[in-house]
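Many introductory courses stop at the sequence. We go one step further.
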Amino acid sequence: MTREEKSQVIEALTDKLTEGNIIYLADISGLNALDTSNLRRACFKANIKLSVVKNTLLEKAMEKSDKDFGELPTTLKGNTSLMISDTGNAPAKLIKDFQKKSKTNKPVLKGAYVEEAIFVGENQLDALVSIKSKEEVIGEIITILQSPAKNVISALQSGGNKLSGIIKTLSEKE
């Protein structure tokens, strides 16, 4: 690769890192062709961009980026795949599900950058899976906000039925 080609790749990686707020680094070495193809399909279905990158070029792109990646550059050893997503827990769920299906326990999570929080190591996978997506949090908030209103409306409706029932009974007695 010439210097010009390397600088173009670094620029492209820097743009990807700048645009994405959810970035996972994983090791997919050791997967056979079928498993790799299945992983790529699963990533496509989950709207996750998967690409294999050179560690030195990714490290230079991280340095060039305006984001603070903390300890993530230290994980850039061996085979590294970059997973970029719009949902915080989608890559973690995909990795965990794929590990259950494959007999090699691959891909292995090296680290993640999720909305300025940094996670390093495979032991962080469960924490990343439990992160709620933006849509899930909004749904929970809407449910919480709707609950008191529903209670008031149902109380008014049931109270109205009871009151009209009492009036009707009293009018029928006379």
